[in-house]
Write a structure and sequence with these properties.
Layout: H1 6-12, H2 15-22, H3 32-50, H4 63-79, H5 87-104, H6 116-119
Length: about 140
């Protein structure tokens, strides 16, 4: 299930704008396929950032994830038209990516089920390092 819908996008963007962003053929209607593609890209972005700590797709998705998905989907639609990207859309996108980075780093916790590896303690987001034992030291130098 997607994190947002076409209707969610229409709550933030008027239909005329959505038509302009998706209607390459000049039919005067919203191209649902292009909207679905933008929603899928938003879902993939969210899942990419959340997958190490949470089971994806997130279910149920928190309201904030819905908001982020809407913003990313709209950004994706504007990205199809390189010259029309409003600064507010860029700012929202960049802010949402920063939020997702914080989720990925564990700085923001989501009310979702943790991934199996996180739940079992296999992955805490920290770098794990191991080293070999010393072959030479003050006690062993005399042996050589």
């Amino acid at each position: 299930m997607a994190y947002c819908t076409k209707e969610d996008i229409l709550d933030k963007l008027d239909e005329e704008s959505l038509i302009q962003l998706t209607d390459d053929e000049g039919t005067g209607t919203v191209n649902d396929g292009r909207v679905d593609k933008a929603i899928a890209a938003a879902d993939a972005t969210i899942n990419f950032y959340c997958r190490n700590l949470y089971l994806v797709p997130l279910s149920p998705a928190p309201d904030k994830i819905n908001q982020i998905a809407v913003n990313i989907a709209i950004y994706e639609l504007y990205s199809r038209r390189d010259d029309t990207m409003p600064d507010t859309r860029k700012d929202k996108y960049n802010g949402d990516i920063r939020t997702l980075e914080k989720v990925s780093d564990g700085k923001i916790k989501l009310p979702c089920q943790a991934s199996a590896s996180t739940a079992e303690g296999e992955h805490s987001g920290e770098l794990m390092v191991s080293t070999r034992s010393k072959q030479f030291g003050p006690d062993t130098v005399d042996k050589y």
